[in-house]
Design a protein that fits this description.
The protein has helices at about 1-15, 35-70, 70-90, 100, 105-110, 115-125, 140-150, 155-165, 165-195, 195-200, 210-230, 255-275, 285-290, 300-320, 325-330, 330-355; strands at about 295, 300. The chain has about 375 residues and is an all-alpha fold. It has a two-stranded antiparallel ribbon with strand order 1-2. About 45% of the residues are buried.
Length: about 375
Amino acid sequence: MKKIVALFTLIIIAAGCSSSDGNNTSNTANYDKNAVLTNWADNIIIPAYTAYDAALGSLQTAVTEFTETPTEANLTTVQTAWLDAYKKYQHVAMFDTGMASDLNLMLSANTFPTDVTGIETNISSGSYNLELQSQFSRQGFPALDYLLYGMGSTNEETVAVYAGAAGNSYKQYITAVVNRLKTISAAVLADWNGAYRNTFVNNTNSVTGSLNHSTNNFVKNLEKDVRYPKVGIPAGLFSNGVLYPEKVEAYFRGNVSKILLNEAITASKKFFNGTYYNGNGTGASLKGYLDAVGAKSEGQNLSDIINAQYETILTTNGALNDSFTTQVTTDNSKMTAAYNAMQTQVVYLKVNMFSALSLTIDYVDGDGD
């Protein structure tokens, strides 16, 4: 019954925001798409990948120092670098295009929950190929979450593992995981700094071009990579109410799930508004595109509605516990509220924005929602 009511509500939202008062989609052909793509590439995507790659470089250095000298102080440095790089990952996760797609950057970096049994099997055997699809859940930031926080209740106990009899095997594995993250990131950044930047900016084809594809990735990221796994799955919204507190992002760290979620929402909001990754400057954007075509709903600019909903999402998220495991088990209604706030935004973007800009959805909606 709840799902029926929720669906009916979303239909009303979609209908209300799809009204054409003041909406002139014929202007879409005249909007400077190249300006949008240029802003995305030069002021958002490349700077975000640059920051992400640098953060992974720092993480790589910290891991090297820790494996050479496994102390609590060096472990703390690795943990700090891990969270910094994980936060910066949230800002590149929506750019699944070009070499990032070819190298499976997103799947290899953040497939969770991590496969602890598989990780331990890899470590004990010493034989593994992290390039295989079957290994996605045994690497990336979730694997590091386990390797840094899941093998002991204290940092002292974790250090003891790396300094113990099997320590070399653990050292080799954490090094391999970090090196793979860095190798992929460096390759993607080099591609953007090379020929791919111009290929991306100049591809203004209406259906198969960069604007349509990147907008799909932007909405897909919010729907499938943020709303669904970070909140929906742990909250039991896709399992008939069965809760999965162990399937939250950064489960072993325990208190950064909200930080990572809000980082992803902030990245989504900045991309929509064309806000530069470095600083508060803005350029041509989806917001500007909507305003240019006069997209409105009930007398309001659709872009204002979307921005207001981003604020609603962040406010709703603010009520969540830092640990989503704790939130799910103590008051799951707040997780459901956070999910619903994001789902409303998905409708605004996927239905209303796509319609106003005459864009075409190019990904499959198959999660049963």
